[in-house]
Each structure stands twice: as C-alpha cells, then as structure tokens.
Design goal:
Blueprint (H helix, E strand, L loop, with lengths): L1 H14 E10 L10 E4 L5 E3 L5 E7 L3 E5 L6 E4 L8 E3 L9 E4 L2 E4 L7 E5 L1 H4 L6 H5 L6 E4 L10 E4 L11 E4 L2 E3 L1 H6 L5 E7 L5 H4 L7 E6 L6 E13 L11 H13 L10 H12 L7 E3 L7 E3 L6 H4 L4 E13 L3 E13 L8 E16 L2 E17 L4 H4 L15 E2 L2 H11 L2 E19 L4 E20 L2 E6 L2 E5 L3 E18 L1
Parallel strand pairs: 1-7, 13-16, 24-27
Antiparallel strand pairs: 1-4, 2-3, 2-5, 5-6, 8-9, 10-15, 11-12, 13-14, 15-16, 17-20, 18-19, 20-21, 21-22, 22-23, 23-25, 25-26, 26-29, 27-28
Helix pairs in contact: 6-7
C-alpha cells in the first residue's frame, strides 16, 4: 500500500515540466520585462526579467496565461513543450482612439487639447430618433438642452457653460460641412461613425471665430469590410413624463379652496352661490348620478358647467410613441468602398386630440474609388425630407391649468362655452401648421498621396440646396353658448411661404 502511494507521487512529479522562453512585442519585436505568466486555474506563476525571459514550472497538460498592461492577454497550452516564446499584440484602448481634429486625424494619446471622442457604439444602445438626444450625457461639458418636448425640436448645444452675453453655440461640422443644430435632426443616427468634440480655444486656430465656443465634428460611415453586407434595424419607443403634478378633481373642494384664497386678498372676487355649492357637493358625492352640464337656472339661454376631472390627460397622452427604421448596404472591393442607407423616423408628440408629429426620410449614398494607387475620388450625397404637423392654436400652459370644474361638450354635441371647450375647439377645428423641408447635399472629394503617403493633398467641393414650404391657416370654430345659441368664433386666414437656400464651398488642404 505504501509502495502504491509512492508511485502516484512519482507519476505526478514526472508530469511537471520546467518551461523557459522569451516574451516580445508583436509591433517592433522589442522585449517585454514584467510580463505576468500564470498557470491557468492556479495562483502559481512568475514574471519576465529585464531581457523579457522567464522560467516557470507547469504541468505538461497545463496552460500558461501571459498578460501585460497595454497588451492583449494570450493563453498558450504547454502540450509537453519546454521552450515557449510568446509575441504579445498591442491592445487598442481609449488612449489610442483615432480622433478627428481639424482637417486630419490624430491618436488621442498624442493630444494636448481638450478633445473628447464619442464612438457610434455609444449611440446604438440608446432609443433615440436624432443625434442630439444621443449626445446627452456622453461627453463632459457638452450640454444638450431641449427647451420643449415637441417632436422634431432642435436642441440647444453648449460647450463649457456660459459663452457670452449674446449667447453662442459651437460650430457643427458633418463630414466637414458646417451645419446647424437643426441638421442634427435630419441626420440618421445609424449613419454616424464617430463624433469628436473640440472644447478649448485651440480649435479656433483651424476654424477661426466660428469655433470660439467649441467644435462638434461628425463623420459618417463608409464601407470597411470586404464583400457586400445588407442590414436592417428598427427602434420602437414609448416616452412618458418624468413627473406630473397631482391636482384635485373634486369640484366642491376646488370651489372652497378658490373661495378661501380670494377671501384673503383685497379683491375677494370669487363668491359662488349656495346653489352652486350644492351642485358641486352633489357632483362630488355622486358624480355618475349628477349631470356635469345643465341649462343655467338663472338664464335659460345659456349652459352651465360643473366638471369633476383633471383635464390635462384629456388633451395630453401619458405616453408618446416613436418609430425608426433603417436599412443599409455597405462593403468594399479592392478599389471601391461604398455605403448606402435609407432611414425613416416618425415621432409623435404628446397632444392627443389633434395631429402632432414629426416625420423624416433620409437617403445617403457614399462611395470612394481608388483611381490610382496615389489618387482616390469620392462622393457623399444626402437627400433629406422632413415634415412637422401641429395645430395652429396650442398653449401647453393652458393644457396644464384648466379648472377641474370646466367642461368639454354640450349635450347637443357642440363645444362647451368654457376654457376646455374653447381650447378643444381651437385644436380640433381651428386650423393647422404644416412645415416641410427638403434638402439635397452632395460632396465630391479627392485625395492625392505622394512620397509614400508622407504628403497628402485633399480637396472637396460641396453643394447643398434646400427648400422650405410653410403653410399655416386659421379657421373659425363653433362654440355652443346655449341650447339655441351656437356662434362662430375666430377668423379665417391663411399664410404660406416658400424659401430656398443654396450653399457652395470648395476646400483644398494638405497634411
């Protein structure tokens, strides 16, 4: 029995090997001192010396794990080997990200100015319909504000806080073309490859006074992988308010509070009658058995109202629905790189009883062709069509401040002669605004390379044509003052404008 135990120990000892070798960098074949070598599944190991050499004992069926800061971890099975040389590859982390700066690119580790690089992958996981929404919170000191929640609203963009007494926004460049914050609503998030934010004054050395408040550089995608790739993605999202005020809907409590508040002012101009309080009490205690609208007992020619609800949900939905669809075709051959995409967005506003939406359709075509080894020509064309529909009358302030005692419709189906009735009539029948914008932009590019790429001469010519059609009209709407008294309120008027804009620019530079 003792002999059996001794034999097992001798067998285990025979499986352990002494392994030596050297660890170098795959980039320049230089030796790497201080590399950690661990026997996988254990805490045993060693490190390389100043010459990159190591010696370690391991089981012949074990695995060695090589790791070093800035290098990709590598696992090597022993497989009975006693001499193992390892070459580690560099790990491309945030310090080696390529950042777009001015008319060229630079590694982030080599930058001395305040520059932030934003990868498009940070936007892919966000349920957004425009780039401005995706930029919120991804870059320090890049402030994105939406002054309203209406669909298609352009963002206010600010870098590093206060600018001047007259305000100021950063210069926005999309593929080198100056653009406004409204253009970010027309750019499909799926088309974006990377974004760089230049935050300090050094950007003005390239772009001049326009860059006094920073620069946002956006580069769109191009074909990168051999072959042809077709992809489709969509995003369906629902949004809701973060918080809404809790308002009383009890008519009796509301009237008493109103009366009490005015009693403590010099005016004391709110004094409901005892009969009104009695009606409010009945509505409060038996809302389903008591009518909220009746013929005024003091004036038989008019309606009288006693509502019992919070009217904000009557006008505004608890949720807004948005949808986004994108299909793209990209790839490359030996000499050609191409990217084609089509995107459609439909963003609904919170308004429930009238049309309130923003639609966008964009088509992008981007092609680069290597005419010669030293010459590349390309074209980047974008067609965009947007449409914004909303009522001619719209006051968000009013929608949140209607009295709960107000009413929407009379028994004969006409709009009530109340704050709620008038607002609903204006939204439904008072007219609408239709704002459409179409834009076509095409950029022709050329790059010539000399001295094995040490000298590059780039040029680009961009032409952009846009047209806006704005239609806005008011219509008269009907209000029921009494059972036999229906009046037309408002005016009939219409306004239309058509504007055209053209932008041409030619650049040539070298680096």
């Amino acid at each position: 029995m003792l002999f059996f135990v001794f034999s097992i120990r001798g067998l285990l000892s025979a499986q352990e090997l002494t392994i030596t070798g050297k660890v170098t960098s795959a980039d320049d074949n230089s030796v790497l001192p201080g590399v950690s070598i661990i026997i996988k599944g254990t805490t045993q190991g060693t490190t390389t010396n100043t010459d990159g050499e190591y010696i370690v004992k391991a089981d012949q069926n074990g695995t060695l794990v090589f790791s070093f800061i800035g290098m990709l971890k590598k696992e090597i099975p022993v497989n009975g080997q006693t001499f193992i040389n390892v070459s580690l590859e560099q790990e491309f982390t945030g310090l080696d990200e390529v950042v777009v700066v001015g008319y060229g690119v630079q590694k982030k580790v080599n930058l001395s100015g305040a520059v932030d690089a934003i990868d498009a992958k940070q936007l892919e996981s966000r349920p957004i319909v425009n780039i401005s929404q995706g930029l919120q919170g991804v870059s320090p000191n890049l402030n994105i504000d939406f002054v309203s929640g209406e669909p298609g609203q352009a963002a206010q963009i600010n870098i590093r806080g206060v600018t001047s007494i007259n305000g100021g926004e950063p210069l926005i460049l999309i593929d080198g073309v100056p653009s406004s914050s409204s253009e970010l609503n027309r750019l499909s998030p799926e088309d974006v490859a990377d974004i760089s934010v230049l935050k300090d004054a050094s950007s003005a050395a390239i772009y001049g006074a326009r860059a006094a408040f920073g620069v946002v550089l956006i580069t769109t995608k191009t074909g990168k992988k051999e072959g042809i790739y077709l992809s489709y993605n969509n995003n369906l999202s629902w949004s809701k308010p973060t918080i809404l005020p809790q308002k009383t809907s009890d008519p009796y409590i509301y009237l008493r509070l109103q009366d009490l508040s005015t009693d403590n002012t010099p005016w004391n101009n709110f004094n409901p009658s005892d009969e009104t309080y009695s009606w409010a009490k009945e509505r409060s205690e038996n809302p389903n058995g008591t009518d909220g609208v009746r013929i005024n007992p003091r004036d038989g020619s008019t309606w009288e109202y006693m509502g019992n609800r919070d009217w904000t949900p009557y006008f505004l939905s608890d949720y807004t629905f948005s949808q986004k669809h994108n299909i793209q075709l990209d790839g490359k051959t030996e000499k050609t790189r191409f990217y084609l995409s089509t995107s459609y967005d439909n963003e609904n506003g919170a308004l429930k009883i009238a049309e309130d939406l923003f639609k966008r359709l964009s088509i992008r075509s981007k092609v680069d062709y290597d005419v010669f080894k030293w010459l590349t020509l390309g074209n980047n064309t974008l067609f965009t069509m947007t449409e914004r529909n909303e009522p001619s009358y719209l006051s968000i302030w009013d929608l949140y401040n209607f009295e709960p005692t107000s009413w929407d419709k009379n028994p004969d189906g006409t709009w009530a002669n109340s704050g709620v009735g008038r607002e609903a009539a204006q939204l439904k029948d008072g007219g609408e605004v239709d704002n459409r914008y179409n834009s076509t932009q095409s950029t022709f590019t050329g790059e010539a390379r000399f001295l094995d790429g040490s000298l590059k001469i780039n040029s680009d010519f961009t032409i952009r044509k846009g047209n806006s059609n704005y239609e806005w009209y008011y219509s008269k709407y009907k209000i029921g003052y009494g059972p036999e008294d229906i009046r037309e309120i408002g005016t009939n008027s219409a306004y239309r404008s058509a504007t055209f804009d053209t932008y041409n620019v030619f650049n040539i530079y070298h680096f």
